[in-house]
Amino acid sequence: MTVWDDLQGQGPVVAQLKQAAQGEGLTHAWLFTGPPGSGRSNAAKAFAAALNCDQDEVALRGCGECAACRTILGETHSDVTFVRTEKVTITIQEARELVSKAGDRPATGRWRIIVVEDADRMAERTTNVLLKAIEEPTPRTIWMLCAPSPADVLVTIRSRCRPVSLRLPPAADVAALLVRRDGVDPQLADRAARAAQSHIGIARRLARDPEARERRLETVRFPLTLRGVTAAVMMAEKLVKIATDEANSSNDERDAAEKIALLASLGAPESGTLPPSMRSQVKQLEEDQKRRAKRSITDSLDRTLTDLLSFYRDVLIIQLGNSVELVNVELRSELEEYAGRSTPETTLARMDAINKARVRITTTNVAPLLAVESMATSLIQQ
């Protein structure tokens, strides 16, 4: 087993990073781009492990077995910092802390490595804080930024980074990974990989959670009964509820555990009013949790709309007579019937409406329900 084993379907990327880890073409800043689910952060993590691998022979670095590889993959290595935000954006203060940490010499490894998994979540003024550190890096420091596309990062940043472009792996490769790494039944792994449209993280969740599979199927079937404004409004409410319930199910328990841990660390009394100093820290935690919940719901709703988009993607494939495999194979007969009642132009317009709703939800402050209701009315069957 090596650190590269989980990068399914990314042969050119693995070759590029292996070569750099062996000293050929290594530079101080890298930009990993690719669609959600392509494994940007996994590639950066594997690269970080290979760079600091304990193996003396360069050809063997990235072994996946030494202490350095294991701790980096487990995100506990002292010289490798992983940055991801569960809030809407990475703050200027967080960026300044990164710049300060990047100036430290590595303690045990060859390199001090900063992996920013959400580089697209930085405002322009925040990104500018990193600019000088990336322009003039300290010795033995490497920056790794991850974003969906180069356009999501300021040109002044991306022009100073070496690009690493990932693609969505074939569904067969994702299914093989689920079988090998997670012990999933091959048939279930194949269905999950196809339903997730090769998004590795979502495929794993679908393979392991029957309720998630049921929620997805409910979402995909919505267009089959969408007739009239009333049905559209009801569909919008249900879609937002599905996304909100899914996000809250993972947040509630975590929020409670974080509050208990904070109170315990502060030595808070078991009953009665908290002292002012403790109240301020609890309030800060609750505000952070609210920001995290907002992003969780936004991300969950975006995934829900992506599932809905797969219905119209399949309809368009049928209308065009394309031989590409359907995402929702189990609904083939219903998809074919639906496709016969509209035209490819209509289907494309409906797909465009869904994508516009996704953009509005993820990039503006519009109320999610209003955006989804507007989208749903444009999907009504004539």
Quick synopsis:
Keywords: Nucleotidyltransferase, Transferase. This protein has 382 residues and is of the alpha/beta class.
Ordered list of secondary-structure elements with their pairings:
Elements: H1 11-21, E1 29-33, H2 40-51, H3 67-73, E2 80-83, H4 92-102, E3 112-116, H5 124-135, E4 141-147, H6 155-158, E5 162-165, H7 171-182, H8 186-195, H9 200-208, H10 210-221, H11 229-266, H12 276-320, H13 332-339, H14 344-363, H15 368-377
Parallel strand pairs: 1-4, 1-5, 2-3, 3-4
Helix pairs in contact: 1-2, 2-3, 4-5, 7-8, 7-9, 8-9, 9-10, 10-12, 11-12, 11-15, 12-13, 12-14, 14-15
Organism: Arthrobacter cavernae
EC number: 2.7.7.7
Keywords: Nucleotidyltransferase, Transferase
Any overview of this molecule?
The protein is an alpha/beta fold and 382 residues long. It folds into 3 domains: 11-165, Rossmann fold, CATH 3.40.50; 171-208; 225-377, no CATH class. It is 58% helix and 7% strand. It is built from 15 helices and 5 strands. Strands 2-3-4-1-5 form a 5-stranded parallel beta sheet, with helices on one face. The longest helix has 45 residues, at 276-320. The N and C termini lie far apart (55 Å). The mean pLDDT is 87.
Distance between the termini: 55 Å
Structural class: alpha/beta
Order of helices and strands: HEHHEHEHEHEHHHHHHHHH
Q: Major β-sheet, in short?
A: 5 strands, parallel
CATH fold call of the largest domain: Rossmann fold
What is the typical, i.e. mean, pLDDT? 87
CATH class of the largest domain: Alpha Beta
Helix content: 55-70%
Low-confidence stretches at least 5 residues in length (pLDDT < 50)? none
Estimate the strand proportion. 5-15%
Number of helices: 15
The CATH homologous superfamily of the largest domain is named: P-loop containing nucleotide triphosphate hydrolases
